[in-house]
Design brief:
Largest sheet: 5 strands, mixed
CATH architecture: 3-Layer(aba) Sandwich
CATH class: Alpha Beta
CATH topology: Peroxisomal Thiolase, Chain A, domain 1
Number of helices: 4
Shape: globular
Helix content: 25-40%
Strand content: 15-25%
Length: 156
């Protein structure tokens, strides 16, 4: 089920996120609050993950800010690594991936992740899908101009 959603706008720059990912972090916190969930209940995050140096560092920082210590144990991947950036359709397709992760109990991989930035130090499910228990997934979509959206799905 769709358990919660969050939105934010940081208006930091037209095409560049703030390094700390403050707007994205607020968005994730808002979605968790709407879903009535705590950070340690998130099992999988489908990252916005565009494979840009600034974007990936900002999103990694945002996940750490939003989830606190729980960020160390959550699986995070970018399905864009397999399907590319679908622009306006990206959020919808990635929401489907997030729901399927719950149904199939599989975290999709981040393929071609060979040399992550040192500031990107989360569990990005590199190269191979992972069978795991997923009751709650989060799907992040962050756009130009600082428009941010997060959906949270929960197993019923």
């Amino acid at each position: 089920e769709l358990a919660g959603s969050g939105m934010s706008s940081d208006a930091y720059h037209m095409t560049m996120p703030s390094k700390g990912g403050e707007g994205a972090g607020r968005c994730m916190v808002s979605a968790m609050k709407d879903a009535g969930l705590n950070p340690d209940q998130i099992d999988y995050i489908n990252a916005h993950g565009t494979s840009t140096p600034a974007g990936d560092v900002a999103e990694s920082q945002a996940v750490k800010t939003a989830l606190g210590h729980a960020a160390e144990s959550v699986a995070v991947s970018s399905t864009k690594s397999m399907i590319g950036h679908l622009l306006g359709a990206a959020g919808g397709v990635e929401a489907v991936f997030s729901a399927l992760a719950i149904r199939d109990q599989v975290a999709p991989p981040t393929i071609n992740l060979d040399n992550p930035d040192p500031e990107c130090d989360l569990d990005y499910v590199p190269h191979t899908a992972r069978q795991m228990k997923i009751d709650v997934s989060m799907s992040n979509s962050f756009g130009f101009g600082g428009t941010n959206g997060t959906l949270i799905f929960k197993k019923v």
